[in-house]
Amino acid sequence: MFILVNLKAYPCDPIAVAKAAKEVADESGVRIAVSPQASQISAVADTGVETWAQHVSPNQYGSFTGSTLAEAAADAGAVGTLINHSENRRKLADIDASVRAAERADLETCVCANNPRQTAAAAALGPDSVAVEPPELIGGDVSVASGDPDIVTDAVAAAQEVDESVDVYCGAGVSTGEDVTAAQELGAEGILLASGVAKADDPKEALEDLVSDL
Ligand SMILES: O=C[C@H](O)COP(=O)(O)O
Predict the structure, then answer these.
(1) Measured from the CA of 140, which atom of ligand 1 is nearest?
(2) Among 10, 14, 18, 99, who pairs with 198 as Cys (CB 3.0-4.6 Å)?
(3) Structure confidence at residue 2 (pLDDT)
(4) Whether the complex's predicted ipTM surpasses the cut of 0.85
(5) Which helix (H) or strand (E) holds 60?
């Protein structure tokens, strides 16, 4: 299982979370990545943890004020990027172009989707992975794996029908090792989570719990 920790715009210490994630990844052997704000990519990558951008813009180099250039994210130390999100909704054409921009910069890609239909559409764009997250469970206490298990199994089936090489992750409300293994049993190959780590009093303890049954 891959554990991808999205720090969103939470007021946490990204370096402390990154160091904790690096330690837990090294101790457990589980792949863990941290996705900070764009301005923190370099500092987070310097901790040695696998670092992802939260989004990259669809444009190339040029006159694109305010964009997050994929090449700049890669130069700062990112090795992957989320694209689209329930909290950062993008047009299909722009999601497609962002996947292509990320590929040009050699960034691994994970396109977020709200449901199995969008998961299939996202898989058709050829990212490395898609992450299905029911918006109503994001940031809550109920894990997608127990609150809406069918959305995970249906998303896995939908993506496989389009492109078997695209991994399916799931997220929303995941905060314990039990949640992670439940998602794994539903067919998810990774977890996208945020508040369970970013808002934890002790991020390392939270991460240790997440990987405890893997
Ligand atoms: O990108 C992460 C997801 O939106 C999940 O957030 P959450 O773990 O706080 O529910």
Answers:
(1) 10
(2) 10
(3) 98
(4) yes
(5) none
Instruction: List, chain by chain if needed, residues with CB within 6 Å of any ligand 1 atom.
Output: 6, 133, 138-139, 171-174, 192-196
- Residue with token string 């439940």: 182
- Cα(196)–Cα(206) distance, rounded to whole angstroms? 7
Q: Which residues of the chain have pLDDT under 70?
A: none
Query: For the chain, what is the mean pLDDT?
Result: 98
Question: Which one of 3.20.20.70, 3.30.70.330, 3.40.50.280, 1.10.287.630 gives the CATH number of domain 2-210?
Answer: 3.20.20.70
6 labeled binding residue = yes
User: Phi first, then psi: what are they for 109, rounded to 5°?
Assistant: -125, 140
Say how far apart CA 85 and CA 117 lie, in whole Å: 15
Q: What are the tens digits of pLDDT across the range 44-59?
A: 999 999 999 999 999 9
Interacting residues of 65 by C-beta distance below 8 A, sequence separation 6+: none
